[in-house]
Amino acid sequence: MILSHSSRESFTRCRQAFYLSRIKRIGIRSSMLPLPVKLGAIWDKYMESRYLGIKFMDKFWSMIDEYGIESDMDVAKIYALIQAHRTLEIEPQYETADGGMFRGCQHKFEIPGEFPIIGYIDRVYSDHIVETKLTARPDFYFQIHNITSQIGTYFLSNPEYKYAVIESTRVPGLRTGAGKYSDESPDAYRDRIIGEIISKPSYYFLGFNRDTRTFGKKFWRNEINLEELTQDYFYVNQEIARAMEDGDNAFYKNRKACYVPGPCFYLPVCDTGCVSEGIFEVREDKPIIKEESEEVEDAAS
Ligand code: SF4
């Protein structure tokens, strides 16, 4: 059995969600994902492209199509964020002041054991890691309790990682379509957002430093109790194995988690007992417990 940290989080939050996602392989269609998740996926790909020196705008428009983002105003939000990021000259850091050297993006790791743990890290350096987030609540990821499992798992994968940087970015949320903005065009809305971001960059790029043109918050390895995390994995693994032996009923619903910290994707399934083909799809891939899109997990946050 292969376990990712997001699988573990899913199981501990609600066994039924774990069952639907990891065992029944029921996933939400890309076009039905919440907007912040779609924008987050585009943002991740943009950041990755920046570091890998790959042209992005063709990919940008194909992702807009893939995710079915039809509102020009929604497109304007992510377009403006990318333009503002460039205007602020937040350039890729291939070498840090600490001597860390860039090693790559979407780095796959595997922690061996009876239940191997796998995952992908957004960006890795020789001595640290970086995780990018795009969210309406960027400060959520600056609270260590909310990231302990994720970055703790990354620390477990490599003793060379001394610290992690969380690059947390706010989804632009300026209102439009009412009052003096009732006739605002998408282009005007885009330009207004760019102006807003440039005028207060640290509100959108948390921890923005004007001198170094970097942003984010650093968490040191010793801030996380890795011994406790390892122990947690051991017991959660045992519980998952036991539930799988016991059968479907062992994956009971935790109704207290349905709206905490945000609405669960599986509410329509749990409320009606039906899996709508218009909303969900059954994934074909074989392994039952492998890494899911972290951003999809985060969407519930
Ligand atoms: S809707 Fe509620 S009970 Fe159903 S999977 Fe999600 S959290 Fe669990």
- Oligomeric status of the shown chains? single chain
H-E order: EHHEHHHEEEHEHHEHHEH
Structural class: alpha/beta
Ligands, ions, cofactors: iron/sulfur cluster
Largest sheet: 6 strands, mixed
Q: Give the CA-CA distance, first to last residue.
A: 26 Å
State the helix count: 11
In round numbers, the mean pLDDT is 91
Strand content: 15-25%
Q: Which residue ranges are poorly predicted, with pLDDT under 50 across at least 5 consecutive positions?
A: 287-301
Radius of gyration: 20 Å
* Residues in helices, as a percent range: 40-55%
Using the alpha-carbon principal axes, give the shape: globular
Count every beta strand, where a strand is a DSSP E run of 2 or more residues: 8
Q: Your description of this structure?
A:
With 301 residues, the protein is α/β, with parallel strands linked by helices. The protein has a domain of 140 residues. Helix content is 42%, strand content 16%. It contains eleven helices and eight strands. Strands 1, 3, 4, 5, 6 and 7 form a six-stranded mixed beta sheet that branches. Helix 1 packs across helix 2. It is globular. The C terminus is likely disordered. The site of iron/sulfur cluster has 12 residues, from helix 2 and helix 10. Iron/sulfur cluster binds next to helix 2 and helix 10.
